Amino acid sequence: METIKEILALFFNAGTTVKPGIALLNMLVAAGLSTIVYFVYKITFSGVAYSKKFNITLVMLSLITTIVMNILGNSLALSMGMVGALSIVRFRTAIKDPRDTAYIFWAITIGLGCGSGNYFMVGAGTLVVSAVTILLSKNLKNDDSYLLIVRCSKDAAASVRRETEKLYETHKLRGETITGDYTELVYQIKLKKGKANGYTNQKIKDIDGVFTVNMVARSGETLG
Length: 224
Prior knowledge:
- By secondary structure, this protein is an alpha+beta fold.
- Helices cover 58% and strands 16% of the residues.
- The longest helix is centred in the N-terminal third of the chain and has 25 residues, at 20-44.
- The protein is elongated, with a radius of gyration of 27 Å.
């Protein structure tokens, strides 16, 4: 019987000052706030391929960071040991969207705040960041600036330039590739109000000597 009591004592008092009840509360708060991050990322995502795995990883990251903070508590020895253990970890996953880095840092911040018991600060911060992110993402999704990529014959290049000036509100030549078989023009354009992508693309495609017309959103999604 005494042995069981000793084992339980070691289990609940393994060198940390955080009580089991407080540790559980920290985890629950972190789970709630990281769920907000999950839905904000899903709502505001505007890239080509939404990754549910990455989104779930953000929740896991918050919870894992909270666990680490619960383990460390106020123990300097544990803190130093954890720094040494984490120093051997190398993350080599490429982050393609700069916003993903911000979401990772956001998830870690939630874990740090909940693990240290700063519920008000991390809760208020999460709500403010969520509101600002959703508000700004609307402007990002409604952006009507695109890249127009036209592959045509050398003789048709001049006609493409003239038609581009007529069809789009603004246009700027970003690149031009000339080979023995074709000429490729890359424009950054902005659509006129009331003009659909299909209409403008077809007008370019109808020019004699035009082979292909692609319109690419700034996020990298091909529209036509």
